[in-house]
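Progress note, project year one: complex with adenosine-5'-diphosphate.
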Amino acid sequence: MNDDRPDGLSVRDVRVSFDGFTAVDGVSLEVPAGDIRFLIGPNGAGKTTVVDAITGLVRATGSVCFGDQELLGRPVHRISRLGVGRTFQTSTIFEELSVLQNLDIAAGARRGWASLARRRRGIPDDVAAALETIGLTGRADQLAGTLAHGQKQWLEIGMLLVQDARLLLLDEPVAGMSHEERDATGALLETVSRDRTVVVIEHDMDFLRRFARSVTVLHAGRVLSEGTVAQVQADPRVQEVYLGHPVETGSVPSGLEA
Amino acid sequence: MTAVTPAPPSAAGAPAPTDAAPPNRPGGRSRLPAAAGFACGAALLFAVAPLALSDFRLALLAKYLCVAMVAVGIGIAWGRGGLLTLGQGVFFGLGGYAMAMHLKLADAGPGGMPDFMQLYGQLDELPVWWRPFASPWFALPATVLLPMAVAFGLGSLVFRRRVRGAYFAILSQALAAAMVILLIGQQGTTGGTNGLTDIQGFFGYDLDDPVNQRMVYFIIAGVLLALLALARQLVHSRYGELLVAVRDSEERVRFLGYDPASVKLVAYVVAAGMAGLAGALFVPAVGIISPALIGIVPSIEFVIGVAVGGRATLLGPVLGAVAVAWARTALSERFPGTWTYLQGLLFVVVVAFLPGGLASLWALARRRGAERAEVSTS
Ligand SMILES: Nc1ncnc2c1ncn2[C@@H]1O[C@H](COP(=O)(O)OP(=O)(O)O)[C@@H](O)[C@H]1O
Ligand SMILES: [Mg+2]
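Model obtained:
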């Protein structure tokens, strides 16, 4: 925690295949420390699979470095202990536990077994700070399962904060959120990126325009385009993909079928 | 850290917090009722039961309380950790046999051999692996440590390979079957199907004497209370919260930097230790340990008691275990042969209609009561 300097993420030539189907086909990314990188692309482009590869959920070839640590080949919980945290497309908080308990568990992996044997007394400082940041201080004792949808996502992010993740990989964090909730989430991302590196998978173009610092577009398992929001939006290949025309040569453009 | 307070979502989107503590939620309750409950339990076990029950019934209760100790462990492993252990008989048996071996050797006197070994007549001297059990300093710790070691070995293999759910249940049950086959096959040194019987003394006390039987009962009651206190501490500790988290979402826990395999392993090993201790105390209470008492059927019966009582609560497993064991005695006396079916039926009914066990009825009644109180005061 004293180590305030965030690290950058470096993904080089990562490939993931499922039974012969190549979902991620040589993706390389450089996300500098403190960036808010948006990862976009059509459904099935391989965005989630890239995050799965970084966090050790699927086997991948190539190289993924966070700071100077190689991540590929390590088990999930070890990668997490190196400061890499993620959320999932569906909420994965512990619904049967309170907000406080959820955060406390997230903080616990670096505490060691001795503290596990004891009860929690009061609210630990790091947990209190995270509650404040995610705006759930007043709901600390509420069962997580009873939170509103947006609050659940914030709780997920709060868990990454107490976990002391310095790289946050967020898979569609604002899906299903109202406008106000999206704004609040964007502000939250800006706060946490001050001393962390953030990668966000998102579909929502409006959200992207407002909060992305840089963008990578994935398509069919490859990087299609990369740059600032303006650069990416101006890229004709990106427009093509988002207008629904397949870019693969040889396939029939959808407009000519009828 | 500066606070960015996200706009509170619309009031309609936020359901009101539930006031009734759900069965899975540790903490939040004050310690006073727990202490009072503990005192009540102690009074019941140490004063009321010995006064109200005949020697015969008290001895039966001692036996049930041993089953209840196994249930406390299952409540942790299954109720909290989601590990459906259908093979606790193995650990119960390891504890029981370790104790019985020591008591048999003590009965036989220094240098003597247990009666059954002489009976089968194949052995001239005590088998090597029996010898350490002559010493209480080895045998007593072994009743707990041996089951824990076996659970550790098995659990390390199984949990790291991510064997879960029904596969784990079947595997643990297969272990119980294997142990029974092993015991029966080695009749000359294990007593085979008969098991180790006719245990006379317990550390110098004659077990035929009712006074000593009472002493055994008191030891069992005391140990059960101690195990309950331990279970309570475990459930309410951070580890207890983590265990529930692993049960509900193992993957998520892994992404938080924990190794769920170790978390489960602790619960499994603790449950095994409790079952071992229960087996060890069962021996002086009943005077016998045999394959029939530790195989698949008793292993399942342990779990049925826990399911009936309410696996996710602290007391549910204990009450369920005692109730089912008592019903078994009462009903199989009157209708021999039907108990197995009744028990199966009971299990199905509980699983289908009352997954939280009888404890969930209690919680429901309390909630109803609270609602009624609210209505009447408003
Ligand atoms: N576990 C899996 N087994 C087989 N195919 C998978 C698996 N996970 C993802 N895929 C496939 O990989 C491709 C990329 O998926 P994904 O990364 O989830 O896309 P995105 O998140 O960009 O929508 C899809 O075609 C998907 O069907
Ligand atoms: Mg996805």
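Chain A touches chain B through 58 residues (CB under 8 Å).
The two ends of chain A are 59 Å apart (CA to CA).
No further modelling is planned for this target in the current period.
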